[in-house]
Amino acid sequence: MKSLPIQGRTLALVVVLFPLLALFIYVALRSGPLAPVPVTVARVKTEAITPALFGIGTVEAQYTYKIGPTSAGRLKRLDVEVGDLVRAGQVLGEMDPIDLDDRIRAQDAAGKRAEAQLSEAKARQAYAQIQARRYEQLLTARSTSEEIVATKKHELEVAVAGLQAAAEELVRVHSEGKALLAQRSNLKIVAPSDGLVTLRHVDPGTTVVAGQAVVELVDPANLWINVRFDQIHAGGLTVNLPAQIVLRSQAGEVRGGRVLRVEPYADAVTEETLAKVEFNQLPEPLPPVGELAEITVALPPLPPAPVIANAAIRRVDGKLGVWHVMNGDLRFTPVALGLADLDGSVQVREGLKVGDQYVVYSAKALTADIRIDVVDRIPGVTP
């Protein structure tokens, strides 16, 4: 008689725990760790895409001039500031000549002295020539001796040699004078082209060596953008392809451009291809050198081919592929990819065929033994 209450309590406990256990199993299978993962799927389709490249670049000047002296010295003056526009041939500054002006004046005096010596040598040569001719006539008339005539001829030869030496000395002095004037002219820092002053490396009073830059100029009429593209998608990048340029300071304003040059050297560290893109028309006002810009280059259209969504690509065990859905089961399928466009489509060369179903988005990372639940949209994951 005493066991009846115990059995009643056990039965009541079973009645209470069984629904709870069933509820726990249901929750575990539907929303717990054993629940299927919500995924969105799509099918491989044939589509013609227009691939494009996107890259980040910096505004640079095509022509940069580093201007400085051709000989060591001290900077006497510098007449321009950063931001000044200068014209070709404009004097920007000058080096201290030190004693060069005195040497030029001394050379001028030496030139005048050499000219006087040349005039004196000409007079001696003319006088010696007259004397030699006169004594030859006297020898013909038997009025002088052959020794005197020979002496006069020797004096003429000496006078001719002196005239030649004086002429050569004058040429030497004039050449040295021209060299000093050229050296004096090189002390002026002159703009080789129209440009914008971007840097002042030194200030007046600073001693600089030959070839050291004092100021830097850029040609603001010739700006381009040094841009980097991912090497994986850079196939087909050639010159003259149209480009869209969006400057960082003018976000939202798209400017036209073209690929001017594809660099023969790529960046092996970042695995990027380098290119130069120029504006079809320079913006007003001009962007500062070094400003960032977003570049989009349209590549030639491709013929129809199998295409998948770029968002579906995953890397598993070092291989690129997609989660292939076959009869409700998952299988990771490695794929060989082709070019992609900026709308999120990428060509598939190997691994999938048209009509195959694959996972685009999933609520969490997938594995081959996981269960999936195909939905139209995953909140917070799909756009």
Description of the structure:
The protein is rod-shaped, with a radius of gyration of 45 Å. The chain is built from three helices and 24 strands. Strands 1, 18, 19, 20, 23 and 24 form a six-stranded mixed sheet that branches. The model has no long low-confidence stretch (mean pLDDT about 85). The chain is of the alpha+beta class and about 375 residues long. It starts with a helix and ends in a 9-residue tail after the last strand. The protein has helices at about 5-30, 100-140, 145-185, and strands at about 35-45, 45, 50-60, 65, 75-80, 85, 90-95, 190, 195-200, 205-210, 215-220, 225-230, 240-245, 255-260, 270-280, 290-300, 305-310, 315, 320-325, 330-335, 335-340, 345-350, 355-360, 370-375.
Tell the overall outline: rod-shaped
What fraction, in percent, of the residue positions are helical? 25-40%
- The share of residues in extended strands comes to 25-35%
User: In terms of structural class, how would the helical and strand content be classed?
Assistant: alpha+beta
The average pLDDT score comes to 85
Q: Give the strand tally.
A: 24
Distance between the termini: 69 Å
Give the uncertain stretches in residue-range form. Answer: none
Biggest beta sheet summary: 6 strands, mixed
The succession of helices and strands, N to C, reads HEEEEEEEHHEEEEEEEEEEEEEEEEE
Secondary structure tally, helices = 3
Structural Rg: 45 Å
Topology, pairings included?
Elements: H1 3-30, E1 37-43, E2 45-47, E3 52-61, E4 64-67, E5 73-78, E6 85-86, E7 91-95, H2 100-140, H3 146-186, E8 188-190, E9 195-200, E10 207-208, E11 215-218, E12 223-230, E13 242-247, E14 255-262, E15 272-279, E16 292-298, E17 305-309, E18 314-316, E19 319-326, E20 329-334, E21 336-340, E22 345-350, E23 357-362, E24 372-374
Parallel strand pairs: 1-24
Antiparallel strand pairs: 1-23, 2-17, 3-12, 3-16, 4-11, 5-7, 5-10, 6-9, 7-8, 9-11, 12-15, 13-14, 13-16, 14-15, 17-22, 18-19, 19-20, 19-23, 21-22
